[in-house]
Amino acid sequence: MNTKGIRLGLLTVSLLSVLLLLFFIVWTQRLTNSNSTYEIKGYVTSAMHRDIPVPANAKLIESAAYSDHPTQSQSETYELKHIGGEQGLYPPEEYFQKLHEAGWTELKEERMGHIHVLYKEEVRIAIEIREDTFQIFLLHSDENHRQNLG
Fold first, then answer.
1. How far apart are the C-alpha atoms of 146 and 150, rounded to whole Å?
2. Looking at the DSSP assignment, which residues form a beta bridge with residue 124?
3. What mean pLDDT comes out for the span 72-85?
4. Cα–Cα distance between 77 and 61 in angstroms, integer?
5. Phi/psi of residue 106, each to 5°?
6. What DSSP assignment string belongs to 70-123?
7. Residue 95, Cα to own-chain centre: how many angstroms?
8. Model pLDDT for residues 118-127, shown as the tens digit of each residue
């Protein structure tokens, strides 16, 4: 085999390697993008409170009432794949925009990690965002909380 044939063989192997690498990059990027985003398909009203919108395609997985809890009266837990991004670090801006449009105001000074506190008129809620779930807590009003304390 002459040097011209060896060079042609090496060039072919190099081109194939580059094409395989590009294919791998495109494929993994496509998988990453499709698996790490969430999609909201409209909104419905929460069963817990008529003024709380929830994504229509979120699945209600638990509903609870807290009679003796000092701050929480009820909660709903929903599943929606990737709503909070990786490890719940990225709050869903579209959902918080919808809450704002519905009249809810976030109390940024009361935010604690994954938990966002919002209010509308006399009602306070907390929303805890995780990677694939979010939980909405209906909080006791300050007046009700003081009465429960005595």
1. 7
2. 119, 139
3. 93
4. 6
5. -80, 135
6. SSEEEEEEEE-TTTT-GGG-S--HHHHHHHHHTT-EE-GGG-BTTEEEEEETTE
7. 9
8. 999 999 999 9
Average pLDDT score over residue span 109-116: 93
From the list 133, 135, 134, 103, the residue with the least C-alpha distance to 118 is 103
Higher pLDDT, 21 or 44: 44
Amino acid at 12: T
Quote the Cα angle for 73-134-119, to 5°. Answer: 50
- State pTM to two decimals: 0.70
DSSP SS3 for 135: strand
**Alpha carbon separation from 1 to 6, 9, 12, 134 (Å, rounded):** 7, 11, 16, 66
